[in-house]
Amino acid sequence: MRLDFDRPPADPVPVMQAWLEEAISRKDVPNPNAMTLCTVRPDGAPAARIVLLKDLSHEGAVFFTNRASAKGRELAGCPRAALVLHWDHLGRQVRIEGSVSQTSDAVSDAYFASRHPVSRLGARASEQSRPCSNRAQLMAALEAARAQCEDPDDPPRPAHWGGYCVALDAVELWQEGEHRLHDRLRYEHTPKGWAVQRLFP
Ligand SMILES: Cc1cc2nc3c(=O)[nH]c(=O)nc-3n(C[C@H](O)[C@H](O)[C@H](O)COP(=O)(O)O)c2cc1C
After folding, report:
1. What is the pTM of this model?
2. Is 152 within a domain?
3. 61-to-56, 158, 175 alpha-carbon distances in Å
4. Does the active-site annotation cover 26?
5. Domain containing residue 182: CATH number
6. In a domain, 170, yes or no
7. Is residue 181 part of a domain?
8. What are the pLDDT digits (tens) for 150-177?
């Protein structure tokens, strides 16, 4: 979708969805749904890592993780996050900022059930973000998780694993331009709807 930055659409969400779909449909874009997730530590320091975007709608941007991980603990302390998607092949960046809520058990269950059984066992076994002595310890934890499961081909979602939804309080659409004369639109969600501003690159 070619966007006319001088005539911004009233709603940025269909554009974000179209850009994501375009990135997914192009076979040369690796991990088109990978995004940087930035959280805030208790001392105010930022922390960033990549997670996978699994749903994008007016409700927000959804990813799944171990809620007992460092990021989960950070989100419990400060339920706000910033996300960045970057599609180099398309010269596009999307930024999202917003408050964070946990997805429902039903949503978390449905996504967990869609994962490969070994990935599900891995999610049960991994004490994400905790010290791990060596690969053998990880593999032993995997085998222990397998032994604990009634049906290792259908491991249930552990209570500490689930989704988060980052609300679209503010979003930015960025398109690369020649000689670094890029186009930017920043949208802020207000009680009256979206307020949009073009920004200097
Ligand atoms: C391409 C890619 C995709 C990833 N997707 C996820 C994901 O969806 N969920 C997740 O918990 N970690 C994912 N990770 C691992 C995270 O980057 C990170 O290492 C892990 O979540 C622990 O982060 P934390 O210690 O800050 O909580 C991904 C890493 C990469 C490189």
Report:
1. 0.97
2. no
3. 5, 22, 20
4. no
5. 2.30.110.10
6. yes
7. yes
8. 999 999 999 999 999 999 999 999 999 9
